[in-house]
Structure formats: structure tokens, C-alpha cells
């Protein structure tokens, strides 16, 4: 039974004044132009580092997970909304774990699974299909992922429904120009599976033809995190083509400091997600 995740979303922007009689009409708002049946390939990379210090004893877990993915726009509605299907076609992973040592896993090499230990389940991701619903503004309202796909990456701390929703670049309902700002909402993964809401401050940096570059500053709501938490860095940059279903590039980085003084525990956490289209 696939898991269905409703996506929190809000989008606000400054309204543009209506033109007076005789003035040139304001430009139309940007909208995605999804094409039924369009498809493509991309690589999705996750790099994470978790440094823990409990009472002066430091340990570190480092992970580099590379997913080969394909997407297909399987349906476009009359209002421009679309259903996108994502499928994992390959996995390449390196993990440095304080107890398991260095583990390397490559789905193209069957022998690598023999030494993958507790990470062997990541291979269950191959062939799994995931769907997402987006409207013409790019707003993602739902991500549906098979249980096995989410479970496959559980040991790495990656939650695919959260990651796929972060690949969207929602646009405001009103027309905007380079330099415009607007606010949207997302979620972010903290620790091994925890989720927190994120307020995203967007800025349109460039516009060439149907291609936009958007920079994002991420404000994480850490009130519910059961540790003292400080955000050191939280930004993202996306390059999107309005005629395609997946961005050309995405680079997202979040760094946190977490402290539990009573347990004598200090954690430094960094996560980076990079998407690159194969054109």
C-alpha cells in the first residue's frame, strides 16, 4: 500500500498594481507548461556528515548516496496540473560507519551486496515507482511512495517524499520580475527521520526564455526538536525550465548544531542534496 504524503505549502508575494487605462498590460505570471508523456533522466545525490561527541568521545558517520532516476509526466489536466512518476534505476553508495566500517554498494555490481550488511535493503529501491501531484504554479500537493522505497533508505536518514517535494520550485500567483521575492513552505529532515516545517524565502535571480534561477533561504522551525538546535547554514539554488517536469539543477545544503547538555551530547550535522539533469 503506497504511502501518501500531503505536502504543506503556502505561497505569498507582493501584488502588482493594475495598469491604468492606456498603460501597457502587466506581464502574465510564470506558469509551468507540462507536456503529457515527456520524460527524462537525472542524478540525485545526498551527502551527509554526522559528528557526535558524548563526554569527549567523538564518532562520525559519513554517507554519499547517488541515485540514478527517471521521470515521466504521465498525465496533464486541463488546468495545467500534472502527475509525475519517478523511478529509481540505479544506486551507488559509500558509508563510513563507526561500527560497520566502510561500506560500498553499487547496484551495477551484484557482488557489492555481499558486504553491504545492514545497508543491503537500499537495493530494494531499484524499480520502485513514486508519483507526485503538482499544479501549474509548481506547487506539490502530494507525494506517493511505496513502503519499500522509504524503508530502503531508512538507514541513511533520507526520506524520499521530503526530498522529491524539495525538487519543486513553486511560483507565486502574480507576475514577477528578476529580483522579486516570495515565500513558500516545505519540510526538512532532521536526525534519523525527524521532520520540521521550513519557511522558504525565494528570490528570482535570473530569467532567460523559459529558464529561471531561484535562490532560497531556509528558515527551519526547530521548536519541536528535543535538543537545543542552531542553524549554521540553510540555503538552496534551483535552475528550472518551465517546459520540463524536473529542474535542471538543484543544490541544497543544511548545517545544524544540536546539543543535549544533560546527556553530555553534542552533534554537528550537515546534509547536502544535489540534482543534475542528464540532458
Please outline the major beta sheet. Answer: 14 strands, antiparallel
Compute the average pLDDT: 87
**Helical residue percent band:** under 10%
The counted number of beta strands is 14
**Residue share in β-strands:** over 45%
Tell me the number of helical segments per DSSP (H or I, 4 or more residues long).
Answer: 2
First-last Cα distance: 33 Å
* Whole-angstrom Rg: 20 Å
Helix and strand pattern: EEEEEEEEHHEEEEEE
Q: Sum up the overall morphology in one term.
A: globular
User: Multimeric state of these chains?
Assistant: single chain
Structural class: mainly beta
What does this 3D model show about the protein?
The protein is mainly beta and about 280 residues long. Helix content is about 5%, strand content about 55%. The chain has helices at about 145-150, 160-165, and strands at about 5, 10-15, 40-55, 55-75, 80-95, 100-105, 130-135, 140-145, 180-190, 195-210, 210-220, 230-240, 250-260, 265-279. Strands 1, 2, 3, 4, 5, 6, 7, 8, 9, 10, 11, 12, 13 and 14 form a 14-stranded antiparallel beta sheet that branches. Strand 11 (about 210-220) and strand 12 (about 230-240) form a beta hairpin. It is globular and about 60 Å long. About 30% of the residues are buried.
Amino acid at each position: 500500500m503506497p504511502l501518501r504524503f500531503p505536502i504543506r505549502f503556502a505561497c505569498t508575494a507582493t501584488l502588482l498594481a493594475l495598469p491604468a487605462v492606456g498603460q501597457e498590460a502587466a506581464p502574465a505570471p510564470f506558469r509551468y507548461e507540462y507536456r503529457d508523456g515527456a520524460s527524462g533522466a537525472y542524478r540525485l545525490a545526498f551527502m551527509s556528515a554526522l559528528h557526535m561527541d558524548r563526554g569527549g568521545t567523538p564518532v562520525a558517520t559519513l554517507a554519499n548516496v547517488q541515485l540514478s532516476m527517471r521521470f515521466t509526466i504521465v498525465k496533464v489536466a486541463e488546468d495545467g496540473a500534472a502527475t509525475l512518476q519517478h523511478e529509481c534505476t540505479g544506486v551507488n553508495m559509500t558509508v563510513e560507519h563507526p561500527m560497520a566500517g566502510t561500506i560500498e554498494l553499487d547496484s551495477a555490481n551484484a557482488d557489492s551486496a555481499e558486504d553491504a550488511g545492514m545497508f543491503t535493503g537500499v537495493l530494494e529501491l531499484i524499480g520502485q515507482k513514486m508519483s507526485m501531484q503538482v499544479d501549474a504554479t509548481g506547487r506539490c500537493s502530494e507525494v506517493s511512495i511505496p513502503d519499500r522505497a522509504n524503508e530502503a533508505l531508512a538507514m541513511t536518514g533520507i526520506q524520499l517524499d521530503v526530498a522529491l517535494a524539495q525538487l519543486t520550485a513553486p511560483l507565486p500567483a502574480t507576475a514577477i520580475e528578476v529580483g522579486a521575492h516570495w515565500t513558500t513552505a516545505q519540510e526538512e529532515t532532521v536526525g534519523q527521520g525527524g521532520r520540521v516545517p521550513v519557511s522558504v524565502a525565494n528570490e528570482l535571480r535570473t530569467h532567460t526564455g523559459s529558464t529561471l534561477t531561484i535562490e532560497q533561504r531556509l528558515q527551519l522551525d526547530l521548536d519541536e526538536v528535543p535538543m537545543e538546535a542552531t542553524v549554521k547554514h540553510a540555503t538552496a539554488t534551483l535552475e528550472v525550465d518551465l517546459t520540463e517536469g524536473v529542474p535542471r539543477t538543484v543544490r541544497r545544503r543544511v548545517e545544524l548544531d544540536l546539543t543535549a547538555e544533560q546527556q553530555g551530547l553534542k552533534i554537528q550535522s550537515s546534509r547536502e542534496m544535489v540534482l543534475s539533469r542528464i540532458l
